Amino acid sequence: MLFSLLEMLFFAGLAGIPGWFLGGTLGAVFGALLALVIHGVMLQWKLDRLEQWLSTPVLRQDPPWQGVWREIAERVQRLLRQQQRLAAVHQKQLQDFLQAIQASPNGVILLDDEARIEWCNDTAAAHLGLDAQRDRLQHIVHLVRDPVFARYFAQDNHASEVVIEGRSSSALSLQKLSVQLHAYGEGRSLLLTRDITAVAQADAMRRDFVANVSHEIRTPLTVLSGFVETLQSIPLGEDETQHYLQLMSAQSDRIQSLVVDLLMLSQLEGSQLPSTQEKVSLAALMLQVTTEGQAFSEWMANKGEGPVHQLEFAPVPDVYLLGARSELLSAVSNLVSNAIRYTPLGGRIQTHWSSTAEGLVFSVHDTGPGIAAEHLPRLAERFYRVDRSRSRETGGTGLGLAITKHVMQRHGGELRIDSVVGQGSTFKLVFPQSRVVVDLG
Ligand code: ADP
Known about the structure:
By secondary structure, this protein is of the alpha+beta class. The protein is 54% helix and 16% strand. A 5-stranded antiparallel beta sheet has the order 2-1-5-4-3, sandwiched between helices. The protein has a 5-stranded mixed beta sheet with strand order 7-9-10-12-11, with helices on one face. A hairpin with a 4-residue loop joins strand 9 (348-355) and strand 10 (360-366). The site of adenosine-5'-diphosphate has 22 residues, from helix 9 and helix 11.
């Protein structure tokens, strides 16, 4: 700066000397002024060039000047480079930050001080049916048209969350979202959304389960306490007493079966997957199932005063299953005992083992009443029964198929059901080849 001033004075002085010679003092002043004007014009011209140079991508260009102008240009160049590096770092940090929010399983929406959308991640867009680009700077309440949300938004206190219906809801399934507003900065807010459909479903299932268990236990307990009261209050003969005791024993058996099945279910849910080290002999397993099945059929025949079922157990392949014996026994015998319980006396029940591309398949076919197609998908749900009274009469707990399905899943297999009303049912267990061995040596 000082140099430029000195340079200007030098030129003014230099031009003043010939002016003085030509026109005296006036000539000197005129000469100096002329020099100053010329110097000013040149300065302006250089500044224009510098400005032009700066407005083009200057960072890779060599400044086309020497001396002080080159120095100025280089300094500006350095400053610009520094700024550009800083901007790149900030841009990268912002991108990383946004990517991290994008990766969040929860929805995040940034709202400005007028509750307009500044930015939202894909999860929030999917939850609330937003379009991150199209809906930018739109008021959130204009887009989320849920009266519960509008009321929540209007209130002052947002300390707790609110549950609203999500955009993925359909006639068949309801999506539940937990939504909460968090204030930050100057009047801005963060709207967080969380899909709680699974949690709400698990909660509802737990409540249903507890209600079902209570109901299943309360019924026989009520009957039992009624009999106890009768025995206590009315003097009965030996035969009558025996009759009542038999009825009481049936009720306590019912409670016991329920408790056994509940324990089995909870053990299946809480324990580690069955080992692939334990080998279970199929022949021994089926011997037990056959013996128990025959005894059960005889018991049914005695009780119903009719002919026993025609039980046809096909030959068992000479292989071993890898898994938990008690679980496998339970899965197989549940299917056999169901077939016996739901098939009228004298009906035919056939079991069959076959080796297919999918694995080893065990099937139980009966000539019972069959099951309507609409019940099939729900049959393995806990306490789901098609024929409630038949289930109770024959000691069913409503948990047999749920246990079987669970056991099969734990062994990497599958439970399949085919049935035609009026023609009977076929229940199949498919064991993967990885769980079947011919001989372990
Ligand atoms: P339950 O103890 O009531 O038999 P399950 O879970 O074993 O419970 O079976 C669920 C329901 O499926 C039964 O209540 C019954 O209505 C139906 N079911 C099961 N097996 C058969 C079958 N072989 N034939 C007809 N219905 C069956």
